[in-house]
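Please go through the sequence line and token line underneath and see whether the fold suits the sequence. See right below:
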Amino acid sequence: MKISAALHSPATIKLLFVAAGIGLTTSALTHLLHAPVLDPLLFSLLLGILLRALLKDRINPTDAATRVGHGLILPGIICYAVANLEFTTVASLPPRSLLLLAIVVAICFGTIFLLGRHLGQTREITSLVATGSAICGASAIAITAPAVRARSEDVSISLLAVTMSALVALFVVLPFCGALLRMVPADYALLSGSLLQFTGFVKEAMAQFHFQGGGAGMVDATRLAMLVKATRYLALIVCIPLVASLAHGRLTLPLSLWLYLGAGIGGTLFHATYPLAYATYLLPFAQLGYQLLWSVTMAAIGLSADVRDLLSVNGYRAFWMALAGFVAALLSFLLFWWLFFPNGA
């Protein structure tokens, strides 16, 4: 009765209405602009935080609204897995590339966890920053959040930290490495797909490399970069129960794992059996589904977040953890890339 009454309170209805408006608007704008770096989840979160800071007492976060927003993550996981978790991608990558990718993801993940423990960071933020940095940015954070029972502040801090690290990587570090090491398109594709946290950032990195004189073979290289990035989604099958178990202090197989795994298997089988129907109907529906659901979720989280938490000690720690994880991943990539591909990828 208390929950039902809270859901019908004016403050809850207002927050959910505003969150839905933000989520739908950012999803539509990012779709129309076709800009890879404009992630709808990130911009929904930022706009929610901005509105909360500007309007202050006019938008009062409620527990009921936050629970509803978090509840949208679970159906979003199903749509996301159907659209992105393709088990056949493992067979598409050469064994050396797959091994290199596994090493980079593991080192990035492990570095952030060790640093989080050393800095006294909360387990929730450490888990979200680790999965977001090692795998797939905002999407990994959204999937991991219910598994570790993260608060709105934890999600906001983690996503902003991972995003700032990703921006440094996209616009500074990766172009410098590509030019310094005189990478060919295939090498740069392997680098981008293995290290960048957001799918849109991988596309943008390959586009920049092309305009900077990437040379021939850019179409195949871009396809390789996206294949490497898609393969990283499989790591969530291991990371979800791992972070959940660490957060709860016992072996835990959360609901989000079963939804992710089950929907991924179902989507892979449907794709293999009905490829045309999958590409024409199911894939666009699934992509739109998780973007809308998670954009509204991130907007609700942003409206519930306090700017002071983002500028707290945990916020600074989260950024340095994300940056350190990226640096560790970069160094391990360069070392094993030189060992595995002495003549280039």
The chain is about 80% helix and 0% strand. Residues 275-304 form the longest helix (30 residues).
